[in-house]
Description:
With 306 residues, the protein is an alpha+beta fold. It contains 7 helices and 18 strands.
Amino acid sequence: MSRRRKGxxxxxxxxxxxxxxVTSNGILQQVKRLYGAAKAGHTGALDPLATxxxxxxxxxxxxxxxxxxxxxxxxxxxxxxxVRTETGDSEGAxxxxxxxxxxxDEDALEPxxxxxxxxxxxxxxxxxxxxxxxxxxxxxxxxxxxxxxxPRPVTIYQLILLNVRANEIDLAxxxxxxxxxxxxxxxxxxxxxxxxxxxxxxxxxxxxFTLDQVHRVDDLEAMRERGESLDGLLVKPDAALSMFPExxxxxxxxxxxxxxxxxxxxxxxxxxxxxxxxxxxxxxxGEGFAEGDGCKIVPRRLVKHG
Length: 306
């Protein structure tokens, strides 16, 4: 006897403005209940301290959550200079205090920031969700256990100084996945000789979505109380895949792809991920392999219709 799924079929992406002080999973569960959705997931957790862009995937969109997790991110952060904490942010205990260099201005900061732009090696925080022997690092940290973490390569595309105050700086960062802003700020603080930690962190970009597209959970709750449907706020799954080329299929080629079979396309040279469309719109994500005067398209993630 099959078990009935709890909730209804909801398909699409909702971009939430995550509030401070709650976990990403807490927000996910709250919004999932508001939609009465059977299946939902987020695309990479934000620390409770952090706010900003948090794309949530429902139904068929969850098939592309890993690609969204792998996307570039952008943040605006405030760093408090002169104080290091065990977590790298204001939620951790202070472990070191040093004087901030006098006369710290844009001219003095720019050479330091330049050192962190481009391809760098970063040691993840012990208070990260990275796993060691099946357990997240933060669990070891809370037990007072230090785990050796090898440096990981990340790329800092942009590191812009927005403002300088007596003991604070505001930074705008655009980076690859897996970059820890707390670790970046801690490293910058060490390079300045005074230490630093994150006091505010706002994500401004994730999976191609920006703050212009976010919705507040409070507004969703108000809509539900008024009896309004939330479904119109969802965007289609392919909205998060705009970085990939698109290909429209028809006839036998479309039928083969929908049956999970690769097809050969003449006159197209596609290598790598490709968005696939048919007479009913988006059908999924494929992967192209160049072959002679065309390419072979292999289906990777297909969506259900109807």
